[in-house]
Amino acid sequence: MDINGVQIEDTFAEAFPIKMARVQITAATERWALEAAREATGFGTSVIGCPAEAGIERVVGGEETPDGRPGVNIMICNMGYKNLETSLLFRLGQCVLTAPTTAAWSGMPDAEKKFDTGKKLKFFGDGYEKQAQMYGRTVWKIPLMSGDFVIEESFGAVDGIAGGNFLIMGQNQMAALTAAEVAVNAISKLKGTITPFPGGVVSSGSKVGSKYKFLKASTNTAFCTSLREDGVCTLAEDVSAVYEIVINGVSKEAISTAMKAGINAACRVPGILKITAANYEGKLGTHQFPLHVVLE
Amino acid sequence: MDINGVQIEDTFAEAFPIKMARVQITAATERWALEAAREATGFGTSVIGCPAEAGIERVVGGEETPDGRPGVNIMICNMGYKNLETSLLFRLGQCVLTAPTTAAWSGMPDAEKKFDTGKKLKFFGDGYEKQAQMYGRTVWKIPLMSGDFVIEESFGAVDGIAGGNFLIMGQNQMAALTAAEVAVNAISKLKGTITPFPGGVVSSGSKVGSKYKFLKASTNTAFCTSLREDGVCTLAEDVSAVYEIVINGVSKEAISTAMKAGINAACRVPGILKITAANYEGKLGTHQFPLHVVLE
Amino acid sequence: MDINGVQIEDTFAEAFPIKMARVQITAATERWALEAAREATGFGTSVIGCPAEAGIERVVGGEETPDGRPGVNIMICNMGYKNLETSLLFRLGQCVLTAPTTAAWSGMPDAEKKFDTGKKLKFFGDGYEKQAQMYGRTVWKIPLMSGDFVIEESFGAVDGIAGGNFLIMGQNQMAALTAAEVAVNAISKLKGTITPFPGGVVSSGSKVGSKYKFLKASTNTAFCTSLREDGVCTLAEDVSAVYEIVINGVSKEAISTAMKAGINAACRVPGILKITAANYEGKLGTHQFPLHVVLE
Amino acid sequence: MDINGVQIEDTFAEAFPIKMARVQITAATERWALEAAREATGFGTSVIGCPAEAGIERVVGGEETPDGRPGVNIMICNMGYKNLETSLLFRLGQCVLTAPTTAAWSGMPDAEKKFDTGKKLKFFGDGYEKQAQMYGRTVWKIPLMSGDFVIEESFGAVDGIAGGNFLIMGQNQMAALTAAEVAVNAISKLKGTITPFPGGVVSSGSKVGSKYKFLKASTNTAFCTSLREDGVCTLAEDVSAVYEIVINGVSKEAISTAMKAGINAACRVPGILKITAANYEGKLGTHQFPLHVVLE
Question: Is the pTM of this model over 0.95?
Fold first, then answer.
């Protein structure tokens, strides 16, 4: 199978279950919604070493937000609901409540699982906070120096999937990286997924385990182009750089759609030689996304 | 005292000691250095609820970086050196090592206090990592799928100051917020300081303590414009919005310079009525920045 | 009539016929399509003194472009088809042909009126240009140093409308300007319209004619807030700044939709007092857009 | 000679005299100064087909502007002073006067050659314009709907140089383009130069003349990678894409400094094979910039 002359390997991406919440941040301007969203989703690439996995899902116009203001949908993910509740509390309290002109709305109002994050953050109002009904939602209005901060009382969360992925093999670093940028850009317009790594791109693909006992994951030596002379690198001769796109999503469908859009976009960049995916013989996760099926 | 017709209150900003490290992130392009920097400094507004306070200090050209590539200087701050070491390890390991084309250099190579962050992160190389000398620095080269990640072996840190601040009082929200944006922009070109809140601006100014015993800080009720009818708000009638700029810096001089630049810039925006500063009767910190002295 | 507490004056926007062409610029990345689009639409605010009126219509994903690459739709407008043909030739030849990785496609392939802009620009290939069929379009491939530049042979154009507008009256400059930014942002997501002024906003609203005989248009003295003491300004006391949004579009429907979206967005910004529109007793144009009808 | 392993050809860039004016645009925020600057310098890549060559020189802080507000320095260039005067009049009148919160200042106040652009644009004030002294400059205050537009009475211009250049040869398109981006970014921080093409990069390098008699310039066939089979392309086998950076500047020194900074930056991007420059046996211009001298 190939797309635009780029070979698509017959393999699959291996992914694992995660818990995730969508928060809709609105603000006076799209710029300020984005500032809050970036702060709230930073230090959030991988649960291996970050307090959460987080990212911007997409920018939304006033016609998609409760208060009619421009907004940004973000998603925050943790391995369990307890950690997710903590992440919501601290990320919304420290990065959205503190951001100018913002309000915070549940982006999954119909989810069964709910956290009363707004009810807990209301205490910052020091007794002057007030419960209210706005746009069909139960909210708390917390007085701030620049007006009231509005936050929904409870935030929904669902069972999602983390670690959907594909790898872009390029003739050189800049070709592979530009294709990665284009893939992330295509995914950023879709609903239901985030690409939590910096700028959406992973430069440090890993394998499960290491020769060092204390490490759960280490560099994907078989794909390290500087280890050719060591006989460790198994990449074809013409490949000199590989970037990975990691995708978390609300469902198998959302991740499949994002993989397809990203791969199609990447294959239009000159200098891309092959697309593959990362899997770990089932050591990492239970979900499989075969590239040839996803791209049908 | 006034600047451009804006009254400068005769008061002072109260600040407190903190530990801080500067990291210089370089990349193939300025864009990618910024992506890594944003990820590495996110979820980093206040140590009250974030694992660190962090921000972008400034963008630097190739003439200021060891490897001659474009770069971004960031600063990471914690209350003690132990927490700072942890923050460096996880933020560099998860947000810079993972980011395309980046390298990480100590931005305080002459500091006495040093953390061997690079030496610890090298294990990701699974035995193929190599120590080297580059541009007069001792580094580790860790093989990745897109080439080697270069990280300096040790990172310097110093005693710094957190919580330098000033408050911008405006005729309305958009005037105050635009002035805040302009102030942050002016500070972003200076050396030695960061403004760790979202987009550099704090909308949720606080006082020490609360009627709720379990809360260490709560909204600054005296400045909450929606509490006028409650008789709690002490702001002048014509003020309807207040934003705060919080500044962390390497020294009293750095913070003073940043406060001066930020206040001067803010006072050129139409609709700004008064500049003041936040202090807490010594309950928060030992450093004082009197506005009239800083602005001399 | 009011929206979110903002009064909507019972008046109408006066607009006039214009000729317009849509060009779809694709590139390896969205960033580079935007660079080409900005260059090609610059110096294009008003036909009073610019060679054309031009602007970015919206960003489009690969699913909406012939070659599946990211793109930006621009629109170029002139009073007559002859000037429009000249504008297309020079703006595409100087600003898109010259831009890295771009291709240029007709954004109105079904229009009756057609210009053979691609056929004329092909001569740059110095005899090595080649006609081809790509994605159902007849194109010319012009060899460049970085590969072939692909341009469609002919570009469609239609009768459109220029000068759709509304005015935002604010308590002060920053409130009015932020509302203008938000309105332009809302319009930028819609099909069929551009806002050709800098950043989409007009600060220099005008009236037809002047005391100086050689001037066709001069400042809208009745709305100049600094002329209150001269007795010329007729604005209400609480209004201290007014910005105008000017909209060109392919049809009455497109302009009406854009006006509605822009006004709704502007009315959500604090400090906005009133929305009105500019008309000139029929001296300027034949199209009328009554605000209360547009907002139904 | 080589830099970072990239061969620097022993050749020279050929450039020609031009007339140029610097305009300093200030605004309430850096963002709005940039919007005005982009509009005013658009459709300005080459005098072959644009009404002027124009570009952003650099962003300046309040400490470098007369009114202490953030600013952007732009440069506008034409072959003669008469055309330059026309360009200034229309570009400032249509793209800066119309832009929110801007003011326009001469960026060459000490130049002998002066145009009374402000004195001519004042008529827009319809008799209510007023001459004033501000910050040591003679200005006109023109009443607008959002306040007064301030423009300096006269703008200085000097003899400059256009067409300074270098060419980046890459293993593929994305490597060459990323190096071009990095070069332009390095040049954008320097004083005295602009890179007038889209995003600063030229994809359509040309030779003087053509087989078509009516064309003064046509594609640089010898460097067209798609003409290898025609036997026309003289590029080495491993080069598959070439981008050019064109630089206009106020002096030989300014252009030399920019070429050096740009080439040094480009040579740090992986996949770059060679740097050369464009010259035309003296048919184009009288200025020569030998690469090996510039890089000393």
Answer: yes
Cα dihedral B108/B112/B113/B116 (nearest 10): 70
pLDDT digits (tens, 9 = 90+) for B23-81: 999 999 999 999 999 999 999 999 999 999 999 999 999 999 999 999 999 999 999 99
Taking the CA of residue A99 and the nearest CA in chain C, the distance in Å comes to 16
The sign one gets for the Cα dihedral A86, A88, A92, A94 is: positive
Contact flag B171-C173 (C-beta cutoff 8 Å): no
Token representation of residue C72: 């930006």
SS3 for B121?
helix
- The tens digit of pLDDT for each residue in B198-221 reads 999 999 999 999 999 999 899 999
Q: Which residues of C touch A265 (CB under 8 A)?
A: 62, 68, 70
For an interface test with C, the pick among B172, B177, B269 (most C C-beta atoms closer than 10 Å) comes out as B172
ipTM above 0.90, yes or no: yes
Question: d(Cα A38, Cα A27) in Å, to the nearest integer?
Answer: 13
Across the interface, of A174, A179, A269, the residue whose CB is closest to D269 is A174
**Closest CB to C224 among D91, D144, D241:** D144
Shortest distance between the Cα of A276 and any Cα of chain B, in A, equals 13
Note down pLDDT in tens along chain A; length 296 residues: 999 999 999 999 999 999 999 999 999 999 999 999 999 999 999 999 999 999 999 999 999 999 999 999 999 999 999 999 999 999 999 999 999 999 999 999 999 999 999 999 999 999 999 999 999 999 999 999 999 999 999 999 999 999 999 999 999 999 999 999 999 999 999 999 999 999 999 999 999 999 999 998 999 999 999 999 999 999 999 999 999 999 999 999 999 999 999 999 999 999 999 999 999 888 888 999 999 999 99
CB contact under 8 A, B142 and A219: yes
Inter-chain contact C171–B172, Cβ cutoff 8 Å? yes
Q: Which chain A residues touch C269 with a CB distance below 8 Å?
A: 28
Q: How far apart are CA A292 and CA A295, in angstroms?
A: 5
Q: A: neighbours with 3+ CB pairs under 8 Å?
A: B, C, D
Q: Which of A67, A147, A265 has its CB closest to that of C62?
A: A265
Cα dihedral B28→B29→B30→B35 (10° resolution): -80
On chain B, the residues whose CB falls within 8 A of the CB of A50 are 90, 94-95
| Residue B136 CB coordination number (10 Å) | 7
Alpha carbons A122 and A143: distance in angstroms, whole number = 9
Nearest to residue D198, comparing CAs of C142, C117, C40, C24?
Answer: C40
CA distances from D267 to B198, B282, C10, D183, D289 (A): 36, 54, 62, 9, 18
Distance from CA of A296 to the nearest CA of B (A): 28
Could you give the CA distance from residue B178 to residue B172 in angstroms, rounded to a whole number?
Answer: 10
CA dihedral A87, A89, A92, A98 (to 10 degrees): -130
Amino acid of residue B266: A
Q: What is the DSSP string of chain C?
A: -EETTEEE-S-EEEEEEEEEEEEEEE-SSHHHHHHHHHHHHSS-S-TTTSS-EEEEEEEE-GGGSTTSS-EEEEEEEESSHHHHHHHHHHHHHHHTTTSTT-EEEES-TT-SEEE-HHHHHGGGGTT--EEEEETTEEEEEEEETTEEEEEES-EEEEEEEEEEEEEEEESSHHHHHHHHHHHHHHHTTSSSEE--SGGG-BS--EEE--SSTT-SEEE-GGG-GGGTTTT---S-TT--EEEEEEEEESSHHHHHHHHHHHHHHHTTSTTEEEEE----TTSS-SEEEEHHHHT-
Which residues of chain D neighbour B4 with C-beta distances below 8 Å? 68
Q: Are the beta carbons of B269 and D28 separated by less than 8 Å? A: yes
